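Database export, one record per block. Field names are fixed; values are copied verbatim from the stored entry.
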Amino acid sequence: MKNEKMNVVLIMADQWRGDCLSCAGHPVVETPNLDRVFHDGVVFNQAYSAVPSCIAARAALLTGMTQRNHGRVGYKDRVNWDYDETLPGTLAAAGYQTHCVGKMHVFPARSLMGFHSVDLHDGYLHTERCNAADYGLVDDYLPWLREKCGSDVDITDGGVGCNGYSVNPWPHEERYHPTNWVTSKSIDFLRRRDPTKPFFLKVSYHRPHPPLDPPRNYLDRYMNKELPQIPVGDWVDDKGFIRRNIDSPVPFSDSQIDLARKAYYAQLTHIDCQINRIMHALLEHSLEDNTMLLFVSDHGDMLYDHNMVAKAVGFNGSARIPFMVKLPDGDQRMARGHVDAPVELRDVMPTILDAVGVDVPATVDGRTVLPLCGKGQADWREYIHGEHSGGDQSNHWITNGREMYIWYSATGRELYFDLKDDPDNLHDLSAEKADRVDYLRSKLIIELTGREEGYVKDGALVVGCAAVPVLGEAGLK
């Protein structure tokens, strides 16, 4: 028996910048397999993660909600996930077999969130590693690695930090790398799935998120390449880099910064080659003609832009993400090409449900992007509101893909960038473009009115409010 409904493969990478694709014009990064897969699809040039860090981004993707409704506006571990409607749960109720491989970053760690089954690897999470009596209870990769390589091996064997920017190539055979494991487990699902049901497979890579430990051969591909100059904006007044955990150093020397960037790019190319393994498996199981493909990341990585690393800010290196969609060949709803409309991770759930003909739950705030993929012009949202709590660096931003306004809630500092001419956020034009700052600030006031932090009073932004990582109004515990 053969299922006739459309299958879905959602590929998600962790911390993959939106500009780091060769099809997006990056001068160094090599992603030939992704370029080929989505040559016949649609690439969204202005896709964003509204709360650019791991947990909140995944909440948006799995629920289709804005951060105001899913409640996660910063980073906080070990907060229960309790949502009535999720993407895998909705598909499961519609008769789909649903499976995830790799990173979930939910709590409790074994929460299925609507998936029928999960092969779990969240990377090295301090809270789980320190609280679990047996790490194998919250991770499937490490027990497998020890079975293959010996009981004394660990995911920390390379000696590089899980949030750091020092570099050391993967110390074991490439086939034992977590990127390869995610791919192999995904292919195994395709082998053992129920062939009478349509399936939803989420392939969730932990890399290129640190540790920066690509297999040696991928790092070697970049060692002799000259990298583009690191952008440092005329607004930057911080001469040093943010310090991270004691186990995750951020190197300062030019040579180590150069090596970190090359290792990050090597992680991308490694994933790109692994994605081609999945394409082979789809072909071998005769699934390519009836499978929808999507590729996204949860957020980007500043990667030393403007003297910053990691994420949690509105600048393009952190908040802009890849967002690529391909329907089966011949589907008349899709015309290949690039689209500039601003899309967000909350749009993934309604897009998939629309494509496969399943009703979108009323809880979903996102919108299907399929009308944007067609040959006509679709009515679309004007802008995206993004944010991230974090002490003095707590920030909110508004972007329409052509311009960006940023407000730091702790200090009141405002920045404005013309993204069409300045995608790297080099030049703050807030003084020259006061009218646009006023307009975009008015949109932010609309978004923040009524928020529990007290960001708006008498129609104006209030500076100095205490920012929280989780909104109490969301009912999360």
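Remark 1: The longest strand covers residues 199-208.
Remark 2: The chain has two domains: 7-373, 384-474.
End of record.
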